[in-house]
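REQUEST FORM: STRUCTURE PREDICTION
Request ID: SP-0412
Submitted by: Lab K.M.
Chain count: 1
Length (residues): 321
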Amino acid sequence: MRFDIVIIGGGIVGAGAARDAAMRGLSVALLEQDDLASGTSSRSSKLVHGGLRYLEQGEFSLVFEAVSERRVLMDIAPHLVNPLGFLFPVYKASKVGPFALNLGMWLYDGLSLFRSPKIHKNLSPRDVTEEEPGLLADGLRGAQLYYDCATNDARLTLETALDAVAHGADVRTYTKVTGLLRDADGRVRGVRARDLHGQAEVEVEAQVVVNATGPWTDTIRNLGEARPKLLRPTKGVHVVVPRERLPLRHAVVCAHPSDKRVLFALPWGDRSYVGTTDTDYDGDPADVAASGADVDYLLGCMGHYFPGAKLGRDDVLPGMI
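STATUS: Completed
RESULT:
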């Protein structure tokens, strides 16, 4: 078989690349070793956001790109990408005060060309308590209410892949890439893949091979030839609790009391998500799981910001961490 492009990986990056290439008239094959969105693309924070935290590092071009892509997704998938209000509370001990945060929000709205779902609002402590009654009130100086979007990450990936197929892409799941085909000069010119159900092996040639495997990137690069690592893998863990145990009305931005790392508490149907961690991980990405320390770290943050909830390990839903 021969295609213009072979894409390895059926997450949102691979599915998006396949859709884009197919819509441009190129012949495309996408190969995924498991099901679509079986990796990171079904285990995200369920957000389509503009990267507010990157403003602090002065990454204005990155924020502009992110908010522009957010608008595109709102236009092409309005049934999957929906506005979500975010509360960013400010306390007496907060690193950024109300005035500076308000300026940052105006910059954030400006980088979106004022096309965010809604313009941000400056809330008083009383307003914050009305908007999110369970949030810690001691030392509260106010909050910003701004808007990004939430999405069903797995469905967005699936529908992107289906649209790629509708435009002619050949999308194959449970097809594992086992080797890279190289020409005499060592240039990758295709892949060798095995059907995990039928066990048949095929060679797929292409002008371009795209490695869209996320944490498996170095594994693919090292097929048949040892290469220096490109990635430093880290583990980002969420915990999921019943919504009635953490009854959120908005997403809430939380700076962890121990290290000031930014976390989110997010409403999601009849569940609430809390995350994420960011710790080094050297194991197989297929085996990644939350440790007790990960769970305690996230619950400790919620214990600080939502003391009345009194969340414990027993509240964490099994199989959803």
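NOTES: The mean pLDDT is 93.
Reviewed by: T.R.
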